[in-house]
Amino acid sequence: MNPLVQIAAEVENPLIPPIPELVIGLIAFVIVFGFLAKKLLPNINKVLDERREAIEGGIEKAEAAQTEAQSVLEQYKAQLAEARHEAARLRQEALEQGTALKEELRAEGQRQREEIIAAGHAQIEADRKAASQALRQDVGKLATDLAGKLVGESLEDAARQSRTIDRFLSELEEKAEAAR
Amino acid sequence: MSADPTQVLAFETDCHIFDGCGFPAPGLHSFLFEPIFGDADSSVYFNKTMLLALLGSVIILGFFWAAFRKPKMVPGKLQMVAEAGYDFVRRGIVYETLGKKEGEKYVPFMVATFFFVWMMNLWSIIPVAQFPVTSVIAYPAGLALVIYVMWMSVTFKRHGFVGGLKNLTGYDKSLGGILPLVMLIEFFSNVLVRPFTHAVRLFANMFAGHTLLLLFTIASWYLLNGIGIAYAGVSFVMVIVMTAFELFIQAVQAYVFVLLACSFLQGAVAEHH
């Protein structure tokens, strides 16, 4: 018979731990625990923390970039709106200036036209006066000549002559006035 | 008791069915080993289970040393596997039961315990070794003892002597008249039975698993004669199936062992109820 079977037959309860195995088992465990706790797990924990920070840092960076992009976009939008506003303002100003200029030109034209008309009227009046003066003299001369021929007497006395004619003409004018 | 190499195997190798040889069934003797050196009677000896225990420690440390010695931000394959294992114990067991705040300082211990137990279980199906170290009561008992001492010291440190006793005995005034009975049962169950069942649960699972594997392995060999060969095939298939099953049980038992340790501590750090 196998000697181990014999030992088993006389051996004590299998639930009673043999001390040497217990000691070796604990030593083996303590070795594992010691190395893991003191060296290897702190190592990996450091790296895990670093990795987590790196990932979080990346997220933060992306967030910062996004915020910046947002602010730049708003800036652009504001600038664009400002430019549009400026353009509208310039257009409005130009329109106003154009209108004012047109108004001014029209007024100037009006004034010149009125001046020209007035000058024309004055000229006409002056011409009429000159013509009437010349006419008066011519009519006087013709009348005296005619009268001299009729009476056979030279009415040379210019002064008299003139007085008579003037009186006559004035009477004519008065009659014309009265008839009006 | 001489260390005769021909007697290392616990059954006769030339024994087959129909040879007028009885079935060399596995038994308690399958878990006893002749010392490699030293004398079993003098308590100063070194045997296979001790060798496997120390070798297992070296393997665990070798693995984690290779994985975590120079850990990188972007892990390699080995580091990734080791990280997954570490994270499984840390998050899956310790944080789950004790929470991050209370559990953090127990993480290294629990990680070491888990991988130690698992490795000792794994020896069961590693060729040549093929013996679960945890099926010798001394190994689970040692671990359970460490956990028991830790648990008790946390309990009394946290609650003081009277508070600790109340914590261990489930003291609850609202129970009224049956309180003494409850306290007695709780004390018995927590303080006396728990460490025992903690160790025996692991021991018995590995013991039974190894016995089953032995049974089918020995049967496969024993039946190799005449018509018995057909049955030997069936038995061998069972060896394969049981090996796969053991692989599963080994991991589960390591998990359960650590989970229980954590739940003991959780009871200790819990507030009075």
From TrEMBL, chain A:
Q: Which domain of life is it from?
A: Bacteria
- Which cell locations does it reside in? Cell membrane
Recorded topology in the membrane: Single-pass membrane protein
Under the heading InterPro entries, the entry gives: ATP_synth_B-like_membr_sf (IPR028987), ATP_synth_b/b'su_bac/chlpt (IPR002146), ATP_synth_F0_bsu_bac (IPR005864), ATP_synthase_B_chain (IPR050059)
In this record, what's one Pfam family? ATP-synt_B
SUPFAM superfamilies linked: F1F0 ATP synthase subunit B, membrane domain
Q: Locate the coiled-coil region(s) and give their ranges.
A: 59-115
Record's keyword terms, sorted: ATP synthesis, Cell membrane, CF(0), Coiled coil, Hydrogen ion transport, Ion transport, Membrane, Transmembrane, Transmembrane helix, Transport
Keyword presence, ATP-binding: no
Instruction: Kindly list the residue ranges recorded as spanning the membrane.
Output: 22-41
Q: In which broad location class does this protein mainly occur, judging by the first location in its UniProt entry? A: membrane
> What's the stated role of this polypeptide?
F(1)F(0) ATP synthase produces ATP from ADP in the presence of a proton or sodium gradient. F-type ATPases consist of two structural domains, F(1) containing the extramembraneous catalytic core and F(0) containing the membrane proton channel, linked together by a central stalk and a peripheral stalk. During catalysis, ATP synthesis in the catalytic domain of F(1) is coupled via a rotary mechanism of the central stalk subunits to proton translocation.
Q: Which family does it belong to?
A: Belongs to the ATPase B chain family.
Could you give the subunit structure recorded for this chain? F-type ATPases have 2 components, F(1) - the catalytic core - and F(0) - the membrane proton channel. F(1) has five subunits: alpha(3), beta(3), gamma(1), delta(1), epsilon(1). F(0) has three main subunits: a(1), b(2) and c(10-14). The alpha and beta chains form an alternating ring which encloses part of the gamma chain. F(1) is attached to F(0) by a central stalk formed by the gamma and epsilon chains, while a peripheral stalk is formed by the delta and b chains.
The protein depicted here goes by the name ATP synthase subunit b
Q: Which organism is it from?
A: Streptomyces toxytricini
Gene transcribed to yield this protein: atpF
